[in-house]
Amino acid sequence: MKIAVICANGKAGRLIVKEAVDRGLDVTAIVRSDNTTAAKQVLKKDLFDLTADDLKGLDAVVDAFGAWTEDTLPQHSTSLKHLCDILSGTDTRLLVVGGAGSLYVNPEHTVCVADGPDFPDIFKPLAAAMAKALGELRERKDVRWTYISPAGDFQAEGERIGKYISGGEELTLNSRGESIISYADYAIAMVDEIINGANIQKRISVVRE
């Protein structure tokens, strides 16, 4: 399979590249600066400058874009719109590294993690921006997208356990009552979805077993 990982030099992107390379996928790292990943093929280009030709012929594109400052938070929406526009009508899958704040905590799907009293105020603008982008993504019927939310505690330096539980739109807890996953285990789930998944135009979630 031929895939590309956008923002591959980031913490999540780098581990997704490594997992994909280790499992024999043909991986292109899309980066703005010098490549620091395990990928042998590199496209040095800003996400917003990517064209349809840049992504032509790929089986899947992983969007590992992230923005955290107040002035860049709207780019969660604009970056996703740009990627959807250039992948529109193609067979190439778009898999998005999502957030946990928009996961639902009730069966009616009216209350999200970010609505909870214990959700840190400092992360609320980010959660809102990512939830907005997800809402806009749900409207795209012309793109074969999959949005993968991590567990609530998404650990950049966490251990690679090698096992995870798949969930859907609601926050899933493991047998110990935890909502936790490492970036490394999230990368396993991402590559599994690329290879075996059929969650087209769906949001799924993952938590450590």
UniProtKB/TrEMBL annotation:
Q: Which GO terms describe its molecular function?
A: oxidoreductase activity, acting on the CH-NH group of donors, NAD or NADP as acceptor
Q: Cite the Gene3D superfamilies for this sequence.
A: NAD(P)-binding Rossmann-like Domain
- Name the Pfam families for this protein: NAD_binding_10
Alphabetical list of InterPro entries matching this protein? NAD(P)-bd_dom (IPR016040), NAD(P)-bd_dom_sf (IPR036291), Polyketide_Oxido-like (IPR051606)
Residues in NAD(P)-binding domain copies: 8-191
Question: Which named protein is this?
Answer: NAD(P)-binding domain-containing protein
Could you tell me which species this protein originates from?
Marvinbryantia formatexigens DSM 14469
Q: Taxonomically, what lineage is the organism?
A: Bacteria, Bacillati, Bacillota, Clostridia, Lachnospirales
